[in-house]
Design brief:
There is one protein chain. The protein has 87 residues and is an alpha+beta fold. The chain has one domain. Helices cover 37% and strands 16% of the residues. The radius of gyration is 15 Å and the shape is globular. The chain starts with a helix and ends in a 6-residue tail after the last helix.
Length: 87
Protein backbone atom coordinates (compact mmCIF):
# COMPACT_ATOMS: atom_id res chain seq x y z
CA UNK A 1 0.00 0.00 0.00
CA UNK A 2 1.35 3.44 -0.87
CA UNK A 3 1.30 6.46 1.39
CA UNK A 4 -1.12 8.11 -1.03
CA UNK A 5 -3.54 5.19 -0.65
CA UNK A 6 -3.22 5.43 3.13
CA UNK A 7 -3.98 9.15 3.13
CA UNK A 8 -6.84 8.76 0.66
CA UNK A 9 -8.41 6.10 2.92
CA UNK A 10 -7.96 8.28 6.02
CA UNK A 11 -9.42 11.30 4.22
CA UNK A 12 -12.66 9.35 3.54
CA UNK A 13 -13.17 8.32 7.18
CA UNK A 14 -15.71 10.55 8.91
CA UNK A 15 -14.78 11.18 12.53
CA UNK A 16 -11.30 9.65 12.32
CA UNK A 17 -8.47 11.21 14.26
CA UNK A 18 -4.77 10.61 13.68
CA UNK A 19 -3.18 11.17 17.08
CA UNK A 20 0.42 11.17 18.30
CA UNK A 21 1.72 11.11 21.86
CA UNK A 22 4.85 12.65 23.39
CA UNK A 23 6.70 9.32 23.09
CA UNK A 24 6.42 9.13 19.29
CA UNK A 25 3.51 6.68 19.11
CA UNK A 26 0.65 7.04 16.63
CA UNK A 27 -2.99 5.94 16.63
CA UNK A 28 -6.03 6.30 14.42
CA UNK A 29 -9.19 6.40 16.48
CA UNK A 30 -12.88 6.91 15.89
CA UNK A 31 -13.62 7.17 19.64
CA UNK A 32 -13.78 10.71 20.85
CA UNK A 33 -15.86 13.81 21.10
CA UNK A 34 -15.68 17.50 20.39
CA UNK A 35 -17.88 20.52 20.30
CA UNK A 36 -19.13 21.12 16.79
CA UNK A 37 -17.88 24.54 15.68
CA UNK A 38 -20.55 26.96 14.54
CA UNK A 39 -18.37 28.63 11.90
CA UNK A 40 -15.35 26.54 10.93
CA UNK A 41 -12.46 26.94 11.19
CA UNK A 42 -12.67 27.69 14.87
CA UNK A 43 -10.70 26.57 17.89
CA UNK A 44 -12.18 23.48 19.56
CA UNK A 45 -11.32 20.99 22.28
CA UNK A 46 -11.21 17.33 21.33
CA UNK A 47 -11.08 14.28 23.58
CA UNK A 48 -10.06 10.80 22.44
CA UNK A 49 -10.26 7.34 23.98
CA UNK A 50 -7.41 5.22 22.65
CA UNK A 51 -6.91 1.59 23.66
CA UNK A 52 -3.40 0.31 24.35
CA UNK A 53 -3.36 -1.89 21.24
CA UNK A 54 -4.25 1.08 19.01
CA UNK A 55 -0.85 2.75 19.59
CA UNK A 56 1.85 2.09 16.97
CA UNK A 57 5.42 3.18 16.34
CA UNK A 58 4.70 4.72 12.93
CA UNK A 59 1.96 6.63 11.17
CA UNK A 60 1.86 3.94 8.48
CA UNK A 61 1.32 1.14 11.01
CA UNK A 62 -1.43 3.10 12.76
CA UNK A 63 -3.32 3.73 9.50
CA UNK A 64 -2.82 0.16 8.26
CA UNK A 65 -4.19 -1.27 11.53
CA UNK A 66 -7.21 1.05 11.52
CA UNK A 67 -7.92 0.16 7.90
CA UNK A 68 -7.66 -3.58 8.61
CA UNK A 69 -9.96 -3.22 11.64
CA UNK A 70 -12.50 -1.32 9.55
CA UNK A 71 -12.42 -3.99 6.84
CA UNK A 72 -13.07 -6.66 9.50
CA UNK A 73 -16.04 -4.68 10.87
CA UNK A 74 -17.49 -4.19 7.40
CA UNK A 75 -16.99 -7.87 6.59
CA UNK A 76 -18.69 -8.99 9.80
CA UNK A 77 -21.59 -6.61 9.21
CA UNK A 78 -21.94 -7.86 5.62
CA UNK A 79 -21.80 -11.49 6.76
CA UNK A 80 -24.42 -10.86 9.46
CA UNK A 81 -26.77 -9.09 7.03
CA UNK A 82 -26.47 -11.95 4.55
CA UNK A 83 -26.81 -14.77 7.06
CA UNK A 84 -23.25 -15.99 6.71
CA UNK A 85 -21.29 -17.28 9.70
CA UNK A 86 -17.92 -16.46 8.14
CA UNK A 87 -15.80 -13.56 9.38
Amino acid sequence: MTDTERLDWLDKQDGAALVSDDAGHWAVTFNGMQRVPSAPPEGIESFFWIEKEEWHYSVRDAIDRARADEEKRIGKRYDKENGSRAG
